[in-house]
Specification:
Largest sheet: 4 strands, antiparallel
Number of strands: 32
Strand order of the largest sheet: 2-3-4-5
Helix content: under 10%
Distance between the termini: 18 Å
Structural class: mainly beta
Radius of gyration: 23 Å
């Protein structure tokens, strides 16, 4: 039961006020499921894992209402350790520990057409069992592989693939000595690529030669990067000693990979439970972060809004009853925030149970029109908004019929969306 409504299975959708959306029908899952991606229209790419024997996984797509996409051809890979990259034209890169698709050999990398069929115009260049990183280049299907082995001299840590999957021999980093693995790559419009190698940025030309003219003044050793903003700038999280204290620091990078000195850096001591992380960026360029200070953490204010000038908004301070971090948060299209965390009061208003999903108004106050009670022992990993104010929750949801759902959808009032057919 959810909010007193009968659960529809392993995946449910809630209405805006928290009741189960009876129009949503979850697709049948053989074992359990793994989310691989969410399309701009709210469709879901996922893997149906059959754990009865080998961990093979059937790649499927659900429509925004959760029903199976009749135009998507399902394929089966022989391992559930896989990740997907969705291209703008609908094609899909899959990479992981699989060595076969629909029973045919394939080495750890394949591309599907938008309709799910295997793209016969692409062949994996990998010849040994391995996990690689992948970064698309534009919209044409070419990509960079990160950390590949066995491709040839100068083609290991960073290789460029043609659209058919063959290694582009015109890009070769030669005898460049990699001091560490590449953790992030940023393809450029001129064919060059900027790569983070152990926290140091290096640029390679379109031919793979090291660009000795490239300089970057990023502060410290960047540990993580956010997604590009509309301006092309990127938030990055770095670590360094500040006044003899090893600290986490949130900074912003310009499109030319220099530090954006117009952004006031946000710094917290390393390892603290109120430490700074990568932000959620709102439409007005303000940021949603955690507590940020020991004082706010002690006051149980788990969320902070940082204004565009770098100051903390004093009028945004949702107060939670337990000193536990928010585990998932997403900005809804109307400016409200859906959040999951271990709390039983928000702003002195009781919520149904200690692990719950609530919605906050834009000012951080509790939205009383949204009421959700998750199944006992649920765990939410990720939230994603859909059109019309509906909300997808990905995680683990023990259901009354003994199954475990991995995706639920909620209506705008928080009820479970029973029309969701996933």
């Amino acid at each position: 039961m959810i909010n007193g409504d009968r659960s529809l299975g392993w995946l449910n959708r809630l209405n805006t006020e928290g009741s189960i959306d009876q129009t949503f029908v979850a697709p049948e899952i053989v074992g359990t499921s793994k989310m691989l991606g969410v399309y701009p229209d709210g469709g879901i790419l996922y893997g149906d894992i059959d754990s009865s024997g080998y961990l093979q996984m059937t790649i499927k797509r659900a429509l925004p209402d959760g029903s199976p996409d009749p135009e998507f051809t399902e394929v089966v890979i022989n391992h559930d350790g896989a990740e997907a990259t969705l291209l703008a034209d609908g094609r899909i890169y899959l990479r992981g520990y699989f060595t076969a698709v629909d029973g045919e050999p394939v080495q750890n990398l394949l591309r599907l057409n938008a309709d799910g069929t295997v793209d016969e115009g692409f062949s994996s260049p990998l010849t040994t069992f391995q996990w690689v990183g992948l970064v698309p280049i534009g919209e044409g299907g070419t990509c960079f592989l990160l950390g590949a082995a066995g491709l040839g001299e100068g083609l290991g840590e960073l290789a460029r693939l043609d659209e058919n999957g063959s290694v582009d021999q015109t890009f070769n980093t030669g005898d460049f000595e990699y001091s560490s693995i590449i953790t992030r790559a940023f393809p450029q419009s001129d064919g060059s690529v900027v790569a983070d190698i152990g926290g140091d940025l290096r640029r390679f030309t379109a031919s793979g030669a090291l660009d000795s003219s490239f300089t970057s003044n990023l502060v410290g050793k960047p540990a993580r990067y956010g997604s590009p903003l509309r301006s092309g700038k990127i938030y990055y999280l770095t670590r360094r000693y500040i006044d003899n204290v090893y600290s986490d620091e949130l900074r912003r990078m310009n499109p030319d990979f220099t530090d954006d000195e117009s952004f006031t850096a946000i710094t917290t001591p390393y390892g603290q439970n109120y430490g700074v992380g990568l932000p959620i960026v709102l439409d007005d360029d303000s940021l949603i972060l955690g507590a940020l200070t020991a004082e706010r953490k002690s006051a149980r204010i788990e969320l902070s809004r940082v204004l565009s000038d770098g100051s903390v908004d004093p009028d945004f301070g949702p107060r939670f009853s337990r000193m536990q971090p928010v585990s998932a948060l997403v900005l809804m299209p109307d400016g409200r925030h859906a959040i999951v965390g271990r709390f039983d009061y928000v702003d002195n208003v009781a919520v149904p149970q200690s692990l719950d999903l609530v919605r906050l108004e834009a000012d951080g106050s509790l939205d009383p029109s949204f009421t959700v009670v998750l199944p006992e022992d649920s765990y939410v990993m990720l939230l994603r908004p859909q059109s019309g104010g509906k909300l997808l929750a990905f995680g683990s949801f023990p259901m009354a019929n003994g199954t475990t759902a991995t995706v639920l959808r909620f209506n705008t009032d928080g009820t479970l969306d029973e029309s969701f057919g996933f």
